[in-house]
User: Fold this.
Amino acid sequence: MGNLFLIFISAVVVNNFVLKYFLGICPFLGVSSEVKSSLNMGMAVTFVMTLTAPVVWLLSTFVLIKFKLPFLEYVTDIIVIAALVQLLEMFIKKTSRGLYRTLGIYLPLITTNCAILFSALFLVLRQYNIIQSTLFGLGSGLGFTLAIVIMAGIKEELEFADVPEALKGAPIGLLIAGLMALAFYGFVGLPSA
Amino acid sequence: MKEYILFKDALKGLWKENPVFRQLLGMCPTLAVTNAAVYGLSMGLATAFVLLCSSIIISTFRRVFPHEVRIASFVVIIATFVTIVDLFLKGNFPAISKALGPYIPLIVVNCLILGRQEMFASKNPVHRSVADALGMGVGFTLALIALASIRELLGSGSIFGIQILALVGKGGGFRPWIIMLLPAGAFLTLGTMIGISNFFTGKMANRSACH
Assistant:
């Protein structure tokens, strides 16, 4: 039990996907300038990550390892993610209009979000079981959401600040991310899985 | 005339449309593996190889792909070449392969590669796509080496493992800036570098085109 909790906590804060592994930097710098839309983006990523984790685990354990095909890992992972995102989009569109409106526009972008592929590769690398994998996916997604929402909050304040011309846009975003990464470095003292 | 166009295709990747400083493409590997110059170089070359090979294949067969599934087809082709690079590094340079870890498979979703296929290789003949891929690949590699050299120099006083600033306690007076080797150092260095390049060119970096 304690192990599961550790995996979850370390995925959310200690090994934060954005600030420690530099994953999902593009949406992190590009999309987040409004807290609400970045929260929706984060939710969409968390949703897809939590779903891909068990699917990738099942496929890797029962197909790739069983039939000795580990060299097909990257190709299968990316196809699984692309197919799952597509299915999810169709499913949400049919079942819930409200959810489609909040998550819909972010879903197609998620296929090329490196955070999802990384979490799929990572759980195979760490040899997590299916429950650990799902929790890891959920935790990483929440960590991404946390980082992107904090960033959006800071960017909202930044609208009123006097940023030097050359630093506007991406450079100031990167500098803020650097300071956030330093702050999150403080979590390293926590025990991690 | 023909040579002139090829030359222009190749040259624009070096500075005018540099993937890292101008287009902000492929940020994940740029930030993640640049704590030593040699890792920056290997990641740059690996990405350039995948970009070149997939550009050749995709521009050769650019009329074959149905429009609706072109992105999926591109990704599968890219993933194949990434697997080749990964196996090559594992076999020949196990130390580098271990250090770069899962960032090698992440080349699959590097938006630099997919972006060039979508914007250039799928619309232009093979020789122009090769020129474009070479320019972008070299531009990406140079940017990674620049970033990694700064971080390695300030973080451990060396470039490509050759000690340049003598450390305290080894007959010199340089105290390494540990922050440069931490994730925070990557963000701060790249932010400063893009800021400086904006300052001198007077042009704002475009927002990331991929997401």
